[in-house]
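INTERNAL AUDIT FORM
Audit reference: QA-55
Scope: verify that the stored structure record matches its stored sequence.
Auditor: D.O.
Record contents follow.
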Amino acid sequence: MRLPEIEWKPVSRPTLIAWMSFYVLLLLYLAAHFSSLTLLDNVHLVTHEGGHLLFHWLGEKPELWGGTILQLLVPVLLAWAFAARGDLPGTTVCAVGFFHSLTGVASYMIDALQRELPLVTVGAPADEAEHDWVHIFGDLGVLPHAIQIGNTVRLLAWCGLLATMAWFWWRSVNSQRAQAHAAGARR
């Protein structure tokens, strides 16, 4: 089976420079706050809590997993939609959003043992909020390994962030070269 080839729309040099500058600043900001949640994580929090509400109708376990599932599924579906249109910057922003969200999931996983993060819940007092990953890891029998699992997920997320940005740079430069070559062939 062969995946369909995506015809990416060309990215201009100014657009490439602007986006790469943004990504460098984002990486510096995230590196400065490497092991903690940032203000950007509040964007994912809304989707996470919405996932609990959405999956609530399917039962206790889907509700428990639903926050993380929807938090990660939304940027994947958005990236897919942009890719279907051949929109390289849009696809990249959503892929970066996915991997950034994954860093937040990693912090939440690590916190299953530390329990230092403030918890949020919809429809109940804050003091009644339960930690998703305590229950998930407890059910899976891996709670004592929460820190190692979370650190592994964080490493994968950072690799994904860097790979996405490198892919965007590579794809953009190649589209500029192809565009220049096509323009030269028409002369």
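Auditor finding: record pair retrieved intact. Residues 16 and 169 are 7 Å apart (CA to CA).
Action required: none
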